[in-house]
Specification:
CATH superfamily of the largest domain: Aldolase class I
Strand order of the largest sheet: 1-2-3-4-5-6-7-8
Oligomer: single chain
CATH topology of the largest domain: TIM Barrel
CATH architecture of the largest domain: Alpha-Beta Barrel
Strand content: 15-25%
Largest sheet: 8 strands, parallel, barrel
Structural class: alpha/beta
Bound molecules: acetyl coenzyme *A, 3-methyl-2-oxobutanoic acid, magnesium ion
Radius of gyration: 33 Å
Number of domains: 3
CATH class of the largest domain: Alpha Beta
Length: 502
């Protein structure tokens, strides 16, 4: 384990520290599903639980040990025999078991939690490690609240537990207190002042109370730590733990750090969603790497930049974390490039598109609606007589007669090539009469292949949406029309399709 100095071990504690979040408790089957996903992600260690804490947590560690065989399965204990015996029992099926035992290291904890002394605490720490070592080879020791502990005393404690058999020493910033510089210096201090430090891996375990968990973890690695303890989505006690996805993507993005690990980053996004759903912890939209907006661009200058060259505004390729592509969100802050991009995606790629005119109408709508979705764009393009095409065909007026006594007929005035054209026609219904009347003016061999009418919200006074696929000269064109009048919506859809080639 110690032979490659640049290998970083990823210790996931989503199922232990992450699961300490109120309301996020998991059942054993849920823990196994997440455990298997963490195994596919490639984590080195899964902290499965704290077996003494409840029969349910004990059982989860037992079942996870049976089901997940590749990573080390770790169980947390306090520095006492009862907790350790319980963890040893829970880990009995684990292929690679680890006991994670420890005790408080700051004077605050020593005095106000344990009502004890530094010397007595070191004794308890050593005793716990020696006791655990009798049953399990792989022992990790945590010096709780090490972030606020005196470095000299911490070094003394770490040296003693390594001598007692600990092979990983965890230096938690339990309360998220440290600045990156301080935390990095603490790790370096241990590297330089603990005589037997080469016999153990230093682990970093940082909390996010000041939003510095990830920065502190990286500072720890830069100063000699080689294991990072983290959780998916950064969940955990209070403001959470170091987020796995942030650390891993920092290591991937900054090759110059020279570190490598075993994580297949393409599983990150899927796992983030799984953990969020199962643990009932929504991911904040602006969360780095996995937030809904992490790869979404909504202002025109950024959108233009991304469309020209993704890296202008993205330092991570979304595919690297399992997201198909970045998103261009249309809002009133978007520009013409973004609008054109989405129109082309919806089939409006024609160079005859009057982009300035569409953009003006788009902005009015976007100011009112905040976010413009595909349906809004289609509505904008297929609505009423307003044309979005240079020299496009528009309806000046339409009258339809139908009913039991009459053959359906339509009379239409179109603005076509800058002039008013009129035609009347019959059909087997008001829509076919209208299409026939338009045909008389346009005189192009156009076949309607698909024709669908939907109501947008339901209800007889609703806006109808018509989508239509027509064939002209062996090419297919989509048209969309909207109106409270289904005949008008159909005429709008037909003209929307025609305007793409007439
Ligand atoms: C920083 C962390 O994340 S640590 C892990 C936190 N996770 C949890 O606490 C979740 C699981 N915890 C539990 O289920 C329960 O708290 C248990 C089962 C561990 C203990 O329950 P109880 O025996 O009722 O004790 P309670 O939780 O009220 O108090 C904790 C006791 O453990 C002692 N203790 C705390 N940490 C340690 C430690 N690392 N080593 C030894 N003793 C410790 C406390 O001093 C206190 O002992 P006291 O009763 O002598 O004052
Ligand atoms: C139990 C330890 C490792 C912990 O979670 C912390 O100190 O934050
Ligand atoms: Mg913690």
């Amino acid at each position: 384990m110690l032979h490659d100095p640049n290998r970083i071990f990823i210790f996931d504690t989503t199922l232990r520290d992450g699961e300490q979040v109120p309301g996020s408790q998991l059942t054993t089957p849920e823990k196994i599903i997440i455990g298997e996903a963490l195994q596919s992600l490639g984590v080195d260690v899964i902290e499965a639980g704290f077996p003494i804490s409840s029969p349910g947590d004990f059982q989860s560690v037992v079942e996870l040990s049976k089901a997940v065989r590749e990573p080390i399965i770790c169980a947390l204990t306090r520095a006492n025999k009862g907790d350790i015996d319980c963890a040893v029992e829970a880990l009995k099926y684990a292929k690679h078991p680890r006991i994670h035992t420890g005790i408080g290291a700051s004077d605050m904890h020593i005095k106000y939690k344990f009502n004890s002394t530094r010397e007595a605490i070191i004794e308890r720490a050593v005793e716990a490690v020696k006791y655990a070592k009798k049953s399990v080879e792989d022992i990790e020791f945590y010096a709780e609240d090490a972030g606020r502990a005196d470095n000299q005393f911490l070094a003394q404690m770490i040296e003693a537990v390594i001598a007692a058999g600990a092979t990983v020493v965890n230096i938690p910033d339990t309360n998220g207190y440290c600045l990156p510089e301080q935390y990095g210096a603490k790790i370096l201090y241990l590297k330089e002042n603990v005589k037997n430090i080469d016999q153990a891996i230093i682990s970093v375990h940082c909390h996010n109370d000041l939003g510095l968990a990830t920065a502190n973890s990286i500072a720890g690695l830069q100063n000699g730590a080689r294991q990072v303890e983290c959780t998916i989505n950064g969940i955990g006690e209070r403001a959470g733990n170091t987020s796995l996805e942030e650390v891993v993507m920092i290591l991937k993005t900054h090759h110059s750090l020279g570190f490598h690990n075993n994580i297949n980053t393409k599983h990150i996004y899927e796992l983030s969603g799984m953990v969020s759903r199962m643990m009932r912890m929504p991911v904040q939209p602006n969360k780095a790497i996995v937030g809904r907006n992490a790869f979404a661009h909504s202002s025109g200058i950024h959108q233009d930049g991304v469309l020209k060259h993704r890296e202008n505004y993205e330092i991570i390729n979304p595919e690297d974390v399992g997201i198909d592509q970045s998103e261009i969100i249309l809002t009133a802050r978007s520009g013409r490039h973004a609008l054109k991009h989405h129109l082309a995606r919806l089939g409006y790629a024609d160079e005859r598109l009057d982009l300035d005119h569409v953009y003006e109408r788009f902005l009015t709508l976007a100011d009112a609606k905040k976010e413009i979705k595909d349906d809004d764009l289609l509505l904008l393009m297929g609505n009423e007589a307003d044309t979005n095409f240079i020299n496009g065909v528009t309806i000046n007026s339409l009258e339809v007669i139908c009913g039991d006594e009459k053959d359906p007929s339509a009379s239409i005035h179109l603005n076509y090539k800058g002039e008013d054209h009129h035609a009347t026609a019959n059909g087997n219904g008001p829509v076919s009469a209208t299409i026939n009347a338009i045909q008389r003016i346009i005189t192009k061999p156009v076949d309607i292949k698909e024709f669908n009418i939907h109501s947008i919200h339901g209800g007889s006074d609703d806006v109808s949406k018509v989508d239509m696929r027509v064939i002209y000269e062996d090419k297919s064109y989509m048209g969309y029309g909207f109106s409270t009048d289904i005949v008008r919506a159909s005429a709008n859809a037909y003209l929307d399709a025609l305007n793409k080639f007439v």
